[in-house]
Specification:
heterodimer; A: mainly alpha; globular; B: alpha+beta; FAD/NAD(P)-binding domain; Alpha-Beta Plaits; Glutaredoxin; eight-stranded mixed sheet; 14 helices
């Protein structure tokens, strides 16, 4: 199974909103705790190491893009 | 501190009078009389080899050190004739419990099924294990154990190695076709061959204390994250024989080892843990962990085993047990090479199999250590999430890592013959044999015992009531379900080997599966046997 990057939610705005709402009123540290737990719960639900690794790689490309942009600005 | 009788005398050997071109020539010299070197020497001697075993000390090291010996190690020691003595003295256990704060997160059973001769683990102080091994060595005239013989130089030649050995009477030299080095993590021979020992050092310090007390704790492995008596750190409690309890406490990275080790500083911590201070100290040790291995386990004619070749953190009991697996792996190979029944290239499979096992052990124990001592704040956050999820989810419990305990590796090895038939279970080629209860006549026995009775050699394990396959002469045979032989009344052997009438497993002399067949034909058996013996 490959990582699905098509749009899976009928109403994507609802999904985004649900995650945003979950963080409302939390400190940065609490938000980070929530994200850590959420990542583990979702990773276990996926239950496929290859998909998880693809997801990590996709997410991690944001970090690379961000640091490249920073370098270009400098 | 209490200790068994473990002082041995130096004795001058006639080899020490031989000089120049008249040096003594030996087939194999084992360096280091710890659990690995002693077990290896016994295995080699039982296979008919003469062994010189050198140790630079004249006594068994103090402190309990390695205390958890695995089922696999006990099965190896059974083959060496000392398994029962170890089990009789040891504390048998299979259940572990993990606590977070005041509450239990989960428990695991490392051997949830019956029908095995040996338990998942025993706890036994290393000095007892070594003392029993030394006793066994004393029964075997083929082993020449020389205390206070310290190797100070080695010189590799084409077909032998020259060793220079320091003794109380001065130095002498001898030659050997092969050296097996089991001289521990600080191996001096490793330095002599110029090998690196690279890896990871963990900053966290752990305090290990053995305390003597009578207590009603069950014989289980108890592990705490963030215990009430040791806030923010981890702790381990484990029973040994003689009313001794092993306690491991994780300290802060910046703790001063000299201060922390003082009994007056250790005592209050442990009193808080136990709820009383009616205990005496047997041994206190403080250390940092390292995970590292040699790049190659074989340097010319010098072979490395145990901690000399690889070092792991202790959470998982992978140090001594993996060293013993090294010993059983190299013993039969070296025996065949010395007899000339296999080429020297068979020894390469020792490196292939055991260095992969070392990687696995390092990976597992590094993960445990990282979980116990998170490096970054995000790692700490993820661990916190796992521990809190463990309270209400099954997957969270399974992610909590308080040490993954030693199990034998499955080898990806050129000695294995790949499966051609269809299997729905059973140990695959490269896996170690599974034990099972059997009967012989009316007497109960075990498969592992039948393997030993067959001489711990290449053995064909056959199931079914049909005619036995015609087997090559050098093969031992264990026939289950045949006339007048072994029976499997509980059906557990058949179940554990996914056996049908005609099924056969080719076992190596170390009890690993080399090949398996639904209906073995002679040419396929010959080919599998030749492959497993390293004969191309």
């Amino acid at each position: 199974m490959a990582l699905s990057t098509g749009s899976n939610f009928a109403k994507p705005d609802d999904a985004f909103r649900a995650i945003v709402e979950a963080h409302r009123g939390l400190s940065d540290a609490q938000s980070a705790d929530l994200d850590a737990a959420l990542v583990l719960v979702l990773a276990n639900h996926i239950g496929d190491l290859d998909v998880l690794n693809e997801a990590i790689a996709l997410a991690k490309r944001r970090m690379l893009d961000a640091s490249q942009q920073q370098q270009q600005q400098q | 501190m209490a200790q068994t009788k473990t002082q041995f005398g130096y004795r001058r050997h006639p080899d020490q009078d031989r000089v120049g071109t008249n040096l003594a020539e030996h087939a194999v010299v084992v360096v280091g009389a710890g659990p690995v070197g002693l077990s290896l020497a016994i295995d080699l001697a039982q296979r008919g080899q003469s062994v010189v075993l050198l140790d630079d000390a004249d006594r068994i090291g103090e402190g309990s050190r390695a205390i958890c010996f695995s089922k696999r190690s006990l099965e190896f020691w059974d083959r060496l004739g000392i398994g029962q003595r170890m089990v009789d003295k040891g504390v048998v256990w299979s259940v572990g419990k993990i606590f977070h704060g005041e509450s239990q997160l989960y428990q695991f059973n490392l051997l949830p099924e019956d029908g095995h001769k040996r338990p998942a683990f025993i706890n036994l102080q290393q000095f007892y294990a070594e003392a029993y091994l030394v006793d066994r060595v004393g029964e075997l005239p083929a082993i020449d154990l020389r205390w206070r013989n310290k190797v100070t130089a080695l010189e590799q030649r084409n077909d032998h190695v020259l060793l220079t050995i320091e003794t109380p009477d001065g130095p002498y030299r001898l030659s050997a076709r092969f050296i097996v080095t089991c001289d521990g993590a600080r191996s001096s021979l490793r330095t002599m061959v110029g090998a690196e020992f690279a890896g990871q050092v963990f900053e966290d310090q752990f305090l290990i204390a053995d305390v003597k007390m009578t207590a009603a704790f069950p014989t289980e492995r108890w592990f705490w994250f963030d215990p009430p008596f040791h806030a923010g750190r981890s702790a381990l409690l484990h029973k040994q024989p003689d009313d001794i309890w092993r306690i491991d406490l994780q300290l802060n990275p910046d703790a001063d080892p000299v201060v922390e080790k003082r009994p007056e500083n250790v005592r209050p911590r442990i009193a808080r843990m136990l709820g009383h201070d009616k205990f005496d100290f047997e041994w206190i040790s403080l250390y940092k962990f390292q995970c590292r291995r040699m790049d190659r386990f074989i340097h010319g004619r010098v072979i490395f085993a145990g901690d000399a070749a690889h070092q792991v953190s202790p959470f998982g009991a992978r140090g001594a047990n993996s060293g013993l697996e090294d010993a059983e792996n190299i013993a039969w190979k070296l025996d065949r090479v010395l007899r000339g029944t296999s080429p020297e290239t068979l020894l390469d499979s020792y490196h292939t199999e055991r260095s992969a096992a070392a990687d696995e052990n390092i990976r597992e124990s590094t993960r445990s250590t990282d979980f116990m001592a998170p490096v970054t704040s995000q790692e700490a956050r993820l661990r916190k999430a796992v521990l809190s999820l463990a309270k209400e989810t099954e997957f969270g419990k399974r992610m909590v890592n308080g040490g993954r305990l030693s199990v034998p590796s499955v080898y990806e090895t050129p000695l294995s013959t790949a499966d051609c038939d269809a299997w729905r279970g059973g140990p695959r080629p490269g896996a170690s044999m599974a034990d099972a209860p059997l009967t012989v006549g009316d007497e109960p026995t075990f498969l592992t015992e039948a393997f030993i009775r067959n001489g711990t050699r290449f053995t064909l394990l056959e199931f079914g009531n049909g005619a036995a396959a015609e087997v090559p002469e050098e093969l031992g045979a264990i026939h289950i379900g045949g006339n007048g032989g072994l029976a499997d009344p509980a059906g557990l052997a058949a179940a554990r080997y996914d056996a049908q009438p005609g099924t056969a497993y080719l076992l190596r002399p170390d009890g690993y599966v080399a090949a398996r067949f639904r209906h073995p034909a002679r040419p396929a058996l010959d080919a599998a046997l030749a492959r497993a013996a390293g004969i191309n």
